[in-house]
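User: Hey, my collaborator sent me this sequence without any context and asked if I could get a structure. I don't really work with proteins. Can you help?
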Amino acid sequence: MTDVARVRQPGRPLRRAVIVMAAMLLAGCQTVLPRGATEPGRRPPPVQQPNQVEQGIPTDTARHRVALLVPLSGPNAGVGQSLANATQMALLDSNNQRIRITTYDTNLGAAAAAQRAIAEGNRLILGPLLGDDVRAVTPIAHRAAVPVVAFSNDASAAGQGAYLMGYAPTQSIARVVDYAKAQGITSFAGLVPNGTYGERASTAFLRSVESAGGQVVSLQTYQRVPGSITAAITRMGKDSPYQAILIADSANTASAAVPVIRRVGTSSAHVLGTELWNSESSMANKPSLNGAWFASVSNGLYRQYAAKYRARFGAAPFRLSSLGYDAVLLTIRISADWTVGTPFPERRLSDSGGFAGIDGAFRFGKDGVAERALEVQEIRGGTAVTVSPAPRGFE
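Assistant: No problem. I've predicted the 3D structure and written it out in structure-token form, which is a compact way to encode the shape of the chain:
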């Protein structure tokens, strides 16, 4: 088995793990991924005993059973299928034969999917995607002592054995604010949408600026309806001048807002974005965002992954699909200390040195939310250029 997601040890930085993983990514090993819940040619399961799986589901004695809970139907089916494809790629690329992943459709009911997955003998759950689904799954999994490694970034859904791999806006905002402060910026303004994301972005922004020793001179909210953000910018223009303005929304929204800011706000203000920008492929081609900064996970290894994904599946992956790939790398790394048929060693998820994957170094904090090593990018001449590289690991 290829050691593809190495935990940092003293004297062994995470950079080596990333290099090993990149080599694996390009190798293209050809191992068949176990699929579904039955396999032709296998002996029927023995008579039910405690801790065995339900009738009709084969008992694995050489492989770990892992459930993938994602939407395979409904409005989020595209993202869910991309995550499922990514987990398949990770098993193929790593030539791993000790992990068996069975996929369950959360669009038919996340709680029901979790109950079925646990009844069928899975000892670890990867997913779900949505925060509400994580909240539905966690109590069920917690009672069965099955950890959940979810793809949501809703920090309120973490805990009780649920760990979140999603890209947290709080970390992205803190990183770009720190970078701006290092460039001599001390006065900030913010535009945030109403709603849960905006509330969390506002809190993170205020705390980050205070921590950096700066000052927020204006913070305006808006509805996602025509004219609302223009009205917010107009109100902002009545406040004190600012050197930088955070637009906590998509790159499309930001690109439409910037011309208004230049006209009625502070014309020379530097524009700051969030992790949302990294999921928009056309972001760098928006002239109004030229010179803007935003913080996100690195795209270096992701570009290689995306090329392999397109070659294998005939379509571009969703940006979030790398979470599925990295969740499998994490599972493979921990499986070295996981005896088949025993509970997943949840304590290993809290390894302080963290893990490495396509999206760089990450580790789970005490709150169960993934802390990520982020880089700062600048939109420059139709492309995004790294101006502050991500740390190689954690102290």
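In plain terms: Residues 1-20, 22-56 have pLDDT under 50 and may be disordered. You can pass these tokens on to your collaborator as they are.
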